[in-house]
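As described in the Methods, two query proteins were run sequentially through the folding procedure within a single session, without resetting any intermediate state between them. The first query and its resulting structure tokens are shown here.
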Amino acid sequence: MTPPLPILSFLVKYGIGVIILSMLIRAFASWFRIDERFAFIRFLAHITDPFIGPVRRLVPPVGFIDLSFIITLFLLIIMSQLLQQALPPGW
């Protein structure tokens, strides 16, 4: 009998990875003044805003630095690690 495919582990690892990558691309785009006039940046904002928005409401910006992005990135990495460790082997 072959072991089951680790579908849930794959979804957790790469699903959260796509969100983190989207956040990083959006951050780099903001540094180069590429705003939401471009459809791709609007798409990334649509993906990442549900994660950044709640943190942004709790943590105000410090000067011109938006700490909500850094906090959200840290929380997503921690959540990914914890979920991967909580899954049984082969899931």
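Immediately afterward, the second query was submitted; its sequence and tokens are:
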Amino acid sequence: MAEQPEHFVSLSEGQVHFRYAGPDDGPPVILVHGFSYGSWTYNFLGPLLVEAGYRVFALDLYGRGFSDRPKVRHDRGLYNRLISEFMDAVELDEPVTFVGNSMGGGVVTDFAAHHPGQVRALLLLVPAGLRLSAPMSLGWLGVPVIGDLIWRWVGPGLSASTSKNRAVRQMADAAMAQQSKIAGYYPSLLNTLRNYPLDGLQESFEAVGVQGTPVTALFAGEDELIPLEAAEVLQTAIPKAEVQIFDGEGHDLVMDNPQAVLDALNTLMKRSAG
């Protein structure tokens, strides 16, 4: 999954880059990254999934990785359309298991709430959409022109990784530097901050709970972005969800402990087959 970009599909708002690997007859899994990352989030997990027999699609959301940076509103509708159109473009006509990391967890949950027939199960990794460590407040960033000028200074200061693992940090920093050189990256992030409810998707989580979609959610005890309160809120919204907390892990759980993520996915797949 760490190879150079090779696959693109043309969707309604532009070209979307994705990585694809695994047997054609393997159970399909779509991997969705977080707010400022790209499909490279899954560079460590991807090979494990392929080895386990999964058919893996890791896509770059608009504005990230090697996907286009369309000048459109980065809201829930945009990402729901992206996933739906992507599934059509790669001819996925069976229910798919989604893995969503951080903001990607919110994205795939919202998609499942609106497209339950296309979703087999959800594996949510330190998911956004319920609670953030600090309340969402844009302040001056929400003001046109002024906020854009401030973001030019603040945006590039984003840290790619807080991992304690040097190899993870080096990979993430290099990938962040590469994607940020493509014009439109930082404006896309600001657009998302202004239009996507990073802590306001509780109704979608509750809808998934009512629908009965199998869900496993992994949280990290040392996560500086997603507090453990989010785990409690998710469990209330989706009573049948399997919730696991990894003490000593941080927000980059998917890169720091990919084996634990694979184990959770394998268990979820068995549960969703019942």
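The chain is about 40% helix and 15% strand. We note this only descriptively and draw no conclusion about the first query from it.
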